[in-house]
Design brief:
2 copies of one chain form a homodimer. By secondary structure, the first copy, chain A, is mainly alpha-helical. Chain A is 58% helix and 6% strand. Chain B binds a DNA duplex through helix 3.
DNA sequence: GTTTAATGTAACCAAGAACGTTACTCTTAA
DNA sequence: TTAAGAGTAACGTTCTTGGTTACATTAAAC
């Protein structure tokens, strides 16, 4: 994952839209739940709309809504939409190609990072927004 | 993973120590292979020594060496040693607890992140430094 | 013993990323 | 026609990262 909160906030947004089922929800209302600025919410929603996970309605009484049922939105799609491509630090890594190790380590690391990333994404593929909603209720039951 | 290159550089270091089998290797020699400053190398090695993955020899003709066979060093141990605890952005995330979603989303996200992290770490547990060394030679064969 | 080469670490700096914020334009329901 | 809201650019602050200098400590070699 990464050092930002984009994915966490995006899942919160989608869970909130699922919770508020009916109608268009404004970025201000979502921002109040997330505890941040409406512009931050709109920035993320801009990406989620482009990825067709959410629909937007401009103008007065406009707002956002899920583009499909909660069960139709896997968290992996959310992750890939809002998270920048993970490079695992390989961008700031420029080994000496005149050294036998330095010349070849990058492609080895790429293979390792690819598998690690795939292992993580496989778990995100197993969860969708409906499951998040279900877990929210389960937490609720544990904190009566 | 994260936005830094600590894990990538650490694997490079260990691969280099495995490649240079005999004797103590100085941080300057490693830095020349990695393409960075010796202090950066020593900072990472300081953590790897504390984790008992590497041994250090102070004084003239001192340096570093693997603490065990390359096969005895899984990359997961390296990852856990040099990488700060991944929080997946949950530190900068302070939802409104007066909202039913905001009050419960954090614990749901923690569960999701834990599984995603475990999926990634499971892949890192399958690789050790000996395997990295083997793959370095395989890359060599492909680039004769 | 003295010298020399090395680790160990603190301190500082520059570059970049992340996020909040302000300030707009554009759109549309009422 | 107005008011509410999306869309987006621009900017500042804070934090992280990695490079760099500097210096104390250690130990082999002579």
């Amino acid at each position: 994952m990464a050092g930002n909160s984009r994915f966490a906030v995006s899942v919160h947004i989608l869970a909130y839209l699922a919770y508020r089922k009916e109608g268009a929800v404004s970025s201000s209302e979502i921002a109040a739940s997330v505890g941040t600025n409406p512009v931050v919410i709109r920035r993320l929603l801009s990406a989620l709309v482009k990825a067709r996970l959410v629909t937007a309605q401009k103008g007065a009484s406009g707002g956002f809504a899920l583009a499909s049922t909660p069960a139709g939105i896997p968290l992996l799609a959310v992750y890939r939409t809002v998270e920048p491509k993970p490079d695992h630090g390989l961008n700031r890594f420029a080994p000496n190609h005149r050294c036998p190790v330095g010349a070849r380590i990058e492609s080895v690391l790429q293979g390792i990072f690819f598998k690690a990333q795939a292992g993580m994404e496989a778990e995100l593929a197993r969860v969708n927004v409906a499951e998040v909603e279900r877990q929210l209720h389960a937490v609720c039951a544990r904190k009566p």
